[in-house]
């Protein structure tokens, strides 16, 4: 769902901006520290309720301001609004009405981010990859959020009982029942979506040199031994769980492994190749989502680490699965280049020049 308007106030170095985006490709260009990434960060806050760079929203509020606000209008007229206050309070609004949780924002504005942190999909911990898979499952299987929430609350209760050091099976039984029921469903939904994601990922890899990417594979790990049911795995691990004070098996330990020649992919691939693998994964995730819910891509500094051919390929992948892309770059011509060879409307970018927190529309030089 594309954004047609973005308005922000007191967001990092941007005191105020009101932008009519109105294009499928929107480019934010300017010098280091001018505020380009802050604009992507503001859109991210609109789609998730939080920044992608900072855990503390207080750091994002402009120095000496009490609150930041971000407002967005989506294609079709729906509006989203986020306010964050220095005292930790905040408000989320969908269509001018207070929303209960940030997942309501995510359902309206699915987002995909490519930035310098994206490499964590390959070299980070399992939690990062689990979140990526779950982003896809959340947008493809709408029942997922409820089952995952039920699983997590049962897990919290089981862990609290385990920390007591001795088990009262009467207290444990109802939580284990909920844990097993919702855990098996979470795993089944993840497996179904992973199958779809796998095919889409491999399709993209086939656009890359086979000598390198032909051997790249991904595997789903459910979080417990394949040949056991979740109930059996929990029973088998109970003694160890008791001594450790937490549940060591289950869907909360799931992972996706990227393997090449039997090794973790990040130990084999070059930095640019890793970025292309991540771009292939992110665009495969977007392609797995129903056509009416296509995400907006936020791409921070597309040219970094990628040569011109890979930039063009990534732009083509995005054009096949996104509703809109917002891209930052330093140089106007370099940032525009990957899009110009694509069919309309992808070859008609709108450019904004960002300077010391001031954003103005700019012409793209032919
Ligand atoms: N809370 C804040 N209040 C005011 N200014 C801030 C705040 N936090 C960060 N800044 C400043 O805002 C700017 C944010 O820049 P941003 O990261 O958006 O730059 P950029 O244009 O993406 O730069 P680069 O090309 O270096 O990535 C920086 O100049 C930073 O010093």
TrEMBL record:
Major location (coarse): cytoplasm
Keywords annotated in UniProt: ATP-binding, Cytoplasm, DNA damage, DNA repair, DNA replication, DNA-binding, Nucleotide-binding, SOS response
Organism domain of life: Bacteria
Subcellular location: Cytoplasm
Binding residue positions for ATP: 30-37
InterPro entries: DNA-binding_RecF (IPR001238), P-loop_NTPase (IPR027417), RecF/RecN/SMC_N (IPR003395), RecF_2 (IPR042174)
SUPFAM superfamilies for the chain: P-loop containing nucleoside triphosphate hydrolases
Domain RecF/RecN/SMC N-terminal: 3-335
PANTHER family: DNA REPLICATION AND REPAIR PROTEIN RECF (PTHR32182:SF0)
Family of the protein in this entry: Belongs to the RecF family.
NCBIfam families: recf
Stated role: The RecF protein is involved in DNA metabolism; it is required for DNA replication and normal SOS inducibility. RecF binds preferentially to single-stranded, linear DNA. It also seems to bind ATP.
Protein name: DNA replication and repair protein RecF
Species name: Microbulbifer salipaludis
Gene from which this protein is expressed: recF
């Amino acid at each position: 769902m594309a954004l047609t308007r973005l308005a922000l106030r007191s967001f990092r170095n941007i005191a105020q901006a009101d932008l009519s985006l109105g294009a499928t490709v929107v480019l934010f260009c300017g010098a280091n520290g001018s505020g380009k990434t802050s604009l992507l960060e503001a859109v991210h806050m609109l789609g998730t309720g939080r920044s992608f760079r900072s855990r503390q929203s207080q750091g994002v509020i402009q120095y000496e301001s009490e609150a930041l606000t971000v407002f967005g209008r989506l294609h079709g007229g729906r509006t989203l609004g986020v306010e964050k206050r220095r005292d930790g309070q905040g408000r989320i609004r969908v269509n001018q009405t207070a929303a209960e949780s940030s997942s309501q924002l995510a359902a309206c504005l699915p987002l995909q981010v490519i930035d310098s942190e994206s490499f964590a999909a390959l070299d980070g911990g399992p939690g990062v990859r689990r979140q990526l898979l779950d982003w896809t499952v959340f947008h493809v299987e709408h029942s997922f959020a409820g089952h995952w929430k039920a699983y997590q609350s049962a897990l919290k209760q089981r862990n609290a009982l385990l920390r007591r050091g001795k088990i009262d099976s009467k207290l444990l039984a109802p939580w284990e029942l909920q844990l097993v029921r919702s855990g098996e469903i979470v795993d089944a939904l993840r497996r179904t979506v992973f199958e779809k994601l796998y095919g889409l990922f491999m399709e993209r890899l086939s656009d890359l040199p086979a000598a390198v990417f032909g051997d790249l594979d991904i595997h789903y790990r459910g979080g417990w031994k394949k040949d056991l049911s979740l109930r059996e795995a929990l029973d088998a691990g109970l003694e160890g769980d008791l001594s450790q004070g937490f549940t060591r098996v289950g869907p909360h330990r799931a992972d996706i492994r990227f393997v090449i020649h039997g090794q973790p992919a990040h130990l084999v691939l070059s930095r640019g190749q890793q970025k292309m693998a991540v771009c292939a994964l992110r665009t495969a995730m977007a392609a797995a989502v129903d056509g009416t819910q296509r995400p907006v891509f936020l791409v921070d500094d597309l040219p970094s680490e990628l040569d011109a051919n890979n930039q063009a390929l990534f732009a083509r992948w995005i054009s096949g699965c996104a509703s809109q892309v917002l891209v930052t770059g330093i140089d106007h011509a370099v940032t525009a280049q990957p899009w110009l060879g694509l069919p309309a409307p992808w070859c008609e970018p709108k450019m904004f020049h960002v300077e010391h927190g001031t954003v103005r529309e700019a012409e793209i030089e032919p």
